[in-house]
Amino acid sequence: QVQLVESGGGLVQAGGSLRLSCAASGRSFRSSAMGWFRQAPGKEREFVSVINWSGDKTDYADFVKGRFTMSRDNAKKTVSLQMNSLKPEDTAVYYCAAATGIDTVARVGYGYWGQGIQVTVSS
Predict the structure, then answer these.
(1) Which of 84, 95, 111, 114 has CB 3.0 to 4.6 Å from 100, enough for a Cys bridge?
(2) Is 109 left (phi over 0), alpha (psi -120 to 50) or beta?
(3) Tell me: the pLDDT tens digits for 64-83?
């Protein structure tokens, strides 16, 4: 069982930066890949990034490559998403998730989700 709580969202102007954090509790965090997803109004929840259990491998959706960086601290049981050069189209609710399956670029691969946090980018 893993519980996840996101923080760090808010309102930022286009071109600005935000750092999202996700605090985890539960014994399986250190062995789980972790992901970030987002959902904009009227759209499906989509994959943003994933990091493996040790933190040495990451993967990103094309639309955030070069702008977002995901990291984790297993000692503190946290994952972070540094978001730079933000665009209005990045506006969404962002979700932290813990993987329970092998397909870590799709929702089906995740069994635990945070409550989500709003990120709004103004133009």
Answers:
(1) 111
(2) alpha
(3) 999 999 999 999 999 999 99
